[in-house]
Amino acid sequence: FGIAEGIKIVIHQNESNAQSNLKLVAAALENYAKDHLGTYPSSLGILCKGDPPYLDKDFMNESFIQSYGYVCNRMDPTGYSCSAIPMHCKITGNKVFTISTGGVLVSEECKR
Q: Which residue(s) pair with 33 in the sheet?
């Protein structure tokens, strides 16, 4: 492989992992809501507590996971919106992924 092909492979792996992580977060949020009369938690940290926990790590408190950072712009009792953002646009990932209430995943090209 040349350098360009290698970078494309790494970007694809990073993007795939970011999507998988967001789906994992959404599944945990949806399961929490099912167990709490349709009410979502106020933070992901709540999902890491309990026995068993809904999540094994708080993605929002990790600096970067496989070159993506995670943020929830909305976490309230009625729903959520969480995003995965590449550490370096066009180098570690080409897309920003956002998952929202109900597990709806969308993507958009990142901007430098």
A: none
Task: Please list the residues that pair with 81 across neighbouring strands.
Answer: 74, 100
Tell me the C-alpha distance between 10 and 3, whole Å.
11
Show the beta-strand stretches assigned E in 1-112.
68-76, 79-86, 95-100, 104-109
Angle at 65 between CA 61 and CA 67, to 5 degrees: 125
Quick: pLDDT tens for 53-91.
999 988 888 778 889 999 999 999 999 999 999 999 988
62 vs 32: CA distance, rounded Å: 21
Burial of residue 101 (CB within 10 Å: 0-12, 13-18, 19+) is: middle
